[in-house]
Amino acid sequence: MGQRGGVRRVPAYDGELGAAVARAQEGDEAAFAVAYRLVQPGLLGYLRGLVGDDAEDVASDAWLEIARDLRRFRGDGAGFRGWTATIARHRALDHLRRQKVRPRPTALEQDVLDLPGPHSTHDQALETLSTEAALALIAGLPRDQAEAVLLRVVVGLDGPSAARVLGKRPGAVRTATYRGLRRLAGRLGADGVTDEAPGTLGEST
User: Exposure pattern of 117-140 as b/e (b: 16+ CB <10 Å)?
Assistant: First the structure.
């Protein structure tokens, strides 16, 4: 799934997505359905990490807003994924406030596991991120790490795009992603994780 040198899985369909969005902005309902089909799986995975079993409901609210404001969007397929993730995040935070559920605390230990060996952290962790069990593990990470991993790996955003969604500096998102994947690799029993520098999880160039 992932590639060495970065965690971003650049979706092969970004060109198709950008074209579909452009047609949808002109009123093509079938094109909007295509955009939905391409974006929804990653968006839903991200929301599951934020609101758990309420992800479907929050996603529905997000898509209502996306459809309403679609003509205001400017950008390509990758930009659309970032824009929709921002909207979904706002709806998720609204949901948590309404439910009076505070975000998961970040008081868990922040030290990165030191597991020397020949394999990279993200290669070990990415192999299992598509499963429900893996999403549950991600939800157990400190909040900043969980969101960074979900946006970079599940939604497929690059570092700057994920940083814009979270309102943080790209370097902070890069570090949170690295620490989150290191922690996941440890919890998944990934023997032989290298102590790679956070730069290996940096923005794609």
Answer: eeebbbbbbbebbeeeebbebbbe
Question: What DSSP designation does 8 have?
Answer: -
Buried b vs exposed e over 1-12: b needs ≥16 C-beta within 10 Å? ebeeebbbbebe
86-104, pLDDT tens digit by residue? 999 999 999 988 887 455 4
Q: What are phi and psi of 119, to 5 degrees?
A: -105, 150
Which is more confidently placed, 202 or 34?
A: 34
Nearest-5° Cα angle at 153, 67 to 115: 160
Q: For residue 86, what is the enclosing H or E element?
A: helix 77-98
Q: How high is the pLDDT of residue 98?
A: 87
CA–CA distance, 59 with 44 (Å, rounded to integer): 7
Angle at which helices 29-51 and 14-25 pack, to 10 degrees?
Answer: 120
Q: Which two tokens stand for residue 148?
A: 């960074």
| The pTM of the whole model exceeds 0.70 | no
**pLDDT at residue number 18:** 93
- At 187 the pLDDT is 77
